């Protein structure tokens, strides 16, 4: 489908990382873009630079979602916002589990509930869900992160069933490690935490960049209208999902 058939987009997690980069690309492609995140100041800067329309909304606040975004006519919905945490379920806090469920899954379902009926009515739309290889493979990330990202895969496939017979496309983009703030946020989000995360997770690795994710999203959205790219797994060349673990019992 020529990109030009789409007029509007909404991107969550737009204040930084992949979301901000996707907003820039969509604006260059000529879409009206609604940019959603909590940090109003960052969104304002993005709006100044790109002409995107900022919405400072907490995706965990369903009332705010309905109020601020419910009435919009959106052709391309990018569910990009996501949160993670260090550790696993053994040392999880109530707040981090709730945040992962609310942002990684709840908001995806609520935005589909609010915006997909309009796409169906107009017989035109594209939902891009950014999941993670954590949703497909087991490694030592947070239990709730793996679970919520697996749910994003299931939602993506189910939305295809919900809208079959209409010109609605759904693409799950499933990345491996990408250079963003996500690991630094897990360590507290301070400049020191971001630096520490950079040294631990990115220094010396050839990770993906946000530009790689933008190219992937662009490829899916620009594909001819009869083509639905359902699942795109993208990892750094040096990152593989291997490594079955067989630990010795501790004495
Ligand atoms: N980076 C990786 O290695 C990697 C790998 C695989 C998948 N992913 C996934 O890719 C997506 C983008 O991640 P990223 O790495 O670009 O993350 P990031 O740099 O940490 O950015 C996260 C974005 O989500 C927004 N956000 C978080 N909580 C929110 C809330 N309650 N309400 C509204 N917005 C919220 C943040 O904005 P505010 O703080 O301003 O609200 C920010 O814009 C996520 O779904 C992530 O799980 C990342």
From TrEMBL:
SUPFAM superfamilies referenced in this protein's UniProt entry, alphabetically: NAD(P)-binding Rossmann-fold domains
Pfam families from the UniProt entry: adh_short
InterPro entries in alphabetical order: KR_dom, NAD(P)-bd_dom_sf, SDR_fam
Entry keyword set: Oxidoreductase
Keyword check for Oxidoreductase: yes
GO molecular function, one term: oxidoreductase activity, acting on the CH-OH group of donors, NAD or NADP as acceptor
Record domain Ketoreductase: where: 7-181
Superkingdom per UniProt: Bacteria
Matching PANTHER family: ALCOHOL DEHYDROGENASE
Family: Belongs to the short-chain dehydrogenases/reductases (SDR) family.
Protein name: Oxidoreductase
Protein's organism: Arenivirga flava
Phylogenetic lineage: Bacteria, Bacillati, Actinomycetota, Actinomycetes, Micrococcales
